[in-house]
Automatic annotation (TrEMBL):
Source organism (scientific name): Arachis hypogaea (Peanut)
UniProt keyword annotations, A-Z: Endosome, Glycoprotein, Hydrolase, Membrane, Protease, Signal, Transmembrane, Transmembrane helix
Protein's UniProt name: PA domain-containing protein
Keyword field contains Cell cycle: no
TM region(s), chain numbering: 196-214, 254-271, 277-299, 320-340, 346-366, 373-396, 428-449, 461-481, 493-511
Length: 564
């Protein structure tokens, strides 16, 4: 399944890293059940809402909310909306007529006790201008109608988070005067943050594929030439790969790998909790530490080979490079700092750095031997991504992949196996993100294409690597185009990336007449060689066979004194 040495911890880490393969826009809103009944009066588009408030005339924090399927819409700017006093009705769940005067005010009702439409009907009959529903959790839930009958709600109905409701409730119960203003600024069609996310994704694949070239010591260094002569044979390359513990994926391993990833995804979906996220965070930090250490050390030693010569003896570890130890301690400190501050607005920087280092390292450890295995792996990943994003709602009533990527049910924690970038011009903030799987699956193919081009001494235009990278970039553009056309609903990125990468490679190979060589590369040495190289190979093979036969003859009949 895996040809090469792969520790169990590495195998588990690989699965966790690849399991998330989705491009999405995080907005902390839980989607309503697709089976929820709709009617002409209960089919409003959901709007994200800004909830401005003033306590005794002093402006407070602006909270976010989301409108219901029913009720009136809100203006897009604060200038077109008027503030109204907030009031706590009695009963607080608004499931019956309030004994408190609601006329001209915004009623704050807690969730539960009855349907949302029932609450809104009682609040509206009391003369309120709007209703805020305080959720029982720190996310926002899109409110729908409980049945398909027509509803007559003409006031805005907005849900806010539990913490926002508690803050407003505290101000009201302390006797302060609270005023509330509601408006719904539209989101921009395109946010420029996807440009940076695109650059990070493409850059990670390019760096991961070219890393061995980027970090190779200077070939002109005499000491390097003496100790590390230029490799010129597949045998020497294979030996170097073995020394680096390269894991070569085969066809069976590719299928089992995707099945295992699906199993982990389902487990995450059903057992998502804060402790489960912490397990992922620990694995992510371990992988990020190893990746950052590897990247820093290899880059540094390329410029300064003498940096790793000073060593120190440590108990249990033996002789260790001082430079490597310092880098390791820095990487550990960096990962711990990120884990401790992961809820801060700047935590995406540390997460992206650790994630990129981890993915570059994974692309050095795992390899696809040929296009045959790449086709099996990427086609399985294609089905995996599409199924868990688009088809899983028909079975589980919500998208398993998107639910796991958002971290629903994790108590405010989020899956770390994502690259994130904040929306710079979006009034709602939030992040655009892409799963590691959407980078690593095409990245394995790109890494293979680079090795193939290098082995066959192909130029940029006559090779496959450049065209594959262009195809990946175009596929990402299609992914984010689909994201915006579908109102920010998470997209199975591999739906667009696999045809634009694997498809481009196969079509190019077919047109150039090299598809057979790509398909069987590495499995049969003679089939991948040019005719001139094949003659040399056959001649060398015959010479080796003659010598082996002679040696065997000498071992079998030493007493007869054969001379060779």
């Amino acid at each position: 399944m895996w040809r090469g040495r792969c520790h169990p911890a590495q195998a588990v880490l690989f699965v966790f890293v690849f399991v998330i393969a989705v491009a999405a826009a995080a907005d902390d809103v839980k989607r309503d059940d697709v089976r929820a009944p709709k009617s002409q009066s209960c089919d409003n588009p959901f709007q994200l809402v800004k909830v401005k408030n003033w306590v005794d005339g002093e402006e407070g924090r602006v909270y976010n909310g989301v409108t219901a399927r029913f009720g009136s819409s809100l203006p897009e700017s604060a200038e077109n909306s008027d503030p109204a006093p907030a009031i706590l009705p009695y009963p607080i769940d608004c499931c019956s007529a309030s004994t408190s005067k609601l006329s001209g005010s915004v009623a704050l009702c807690v969730r539960g006790g009855c349907d949302f439409t029932t609450k809104a009907a009682f609040v509206q009959s009391g003369g309120a201008t709007a209703m805020l529903v305080i959720n029982d959790a720190e996310d926002l839930f899109e409110m729908v109608c409980s049945n398909s009958t027509e509803v007559s709600i003409s006031i805005p109905v907005v849900m806010i988070t539990k913490s926002a409701g508690e803050a407003l409730n505290k101000s009201l119960t302390s006797g302060s005067r609270v005023e509330i203003l509601l408006y719904a600024p539209p989101r921009p069609l395109v946010d420029f943050s996807v440009t940076f996310l695109w650059l990070m994704s493409v850059g990670t694949i390019v760096c991961g594929s070219l890393w061995s070239d980027l970090t190779a010591p200077n070939q002109s260094d005499e000491r390097y030439n003496e100790l590390c002569p230029k490799e010129s044979s597949n045998g020497e390359t294979a030996k170097a790969d073995s020394d680096k513990e390269i894991v070569n994926i085969d066809t069976k391993g590719a299928i089992i790998f995707v099945i295992t990833a699906s199993t982990f995804l389902v487990l995450l979906f059903f057992f998502m909790s804060s402790w489960f996220i912490w397990v992922l965070i620990v694995f992510f930090c371990i992988g990020g530490i190893e990746g950052m250490h590897s990247c820093i050390v290899s880059l540094s030693l390329r410029k300064c080979q003498s940096c790793g010569q000073k060593t120190v003896n440590l108990p249990l570890f033996g002789e260790v490079s001082i430079f490597s130890l310092v880098v390791l301690l820095f990487s550990v400190a960096f990962a711990i700092f990120w884990a401790a501050t992961r809820q801060q607005s700047y935590s995406w920087i540390g997460q992206d750095i650790l994630g990129i280092c981890l993915m570059i390292t994974v692309l050095q450890l795992a390899r696809l031997p040929n296009i045959k295995v790449a086709t099996v792996l990427l086609c399985c990943a294609f089905v995996y991504d599409v199924f868990w994003v688009f088809i899983s709602p028909l079975i589980f009533h919500e998208s398993v992949m998107i639910t796991v990527a958002r971290g629903d049910g994790a108590g405010g924690e989020a899956i770390p196996m994502l690259l994130r970038f904040p929306r710079l011009v979006d009034p709602w903030g939030g992040y655009d993100m892409i799963g590691f799987g959407d980078i690593l699956f095409p990245g394995l193919l790109a890494s293979f294409a680079h090795r193939f081009d290098k082995d066959k001494k192909k130029g940029a235009l006559s090779g496959y690597f450049l065209w594959l990278i262009i195809g990946y970039g175009v596929g990402l553009i299609f992914t984010y185009l689909g994201l915006y056309l579908m109102n920010g609903h998470g997209q199975p990125a591999l739906l667009y990336l696999v045809p634009c990468t694997l498809g481009v490679t196969i079509v190019l190979g077919y047109v150039r007449g090299e598809l057979r060589g790509l398909w069987n590369y590495g499995t049969d040495l003679s089939s991948s060689l040019e005719p001139s190289e094949l003659n040399v190979f056959e001649t060398n093979s015959k010479s080796v066979d003659v010598m082996n036969g002679a040696e065997d003859l000498k071992r079998r009949e030493p007493e007869r004194g054969y001379k060779v």
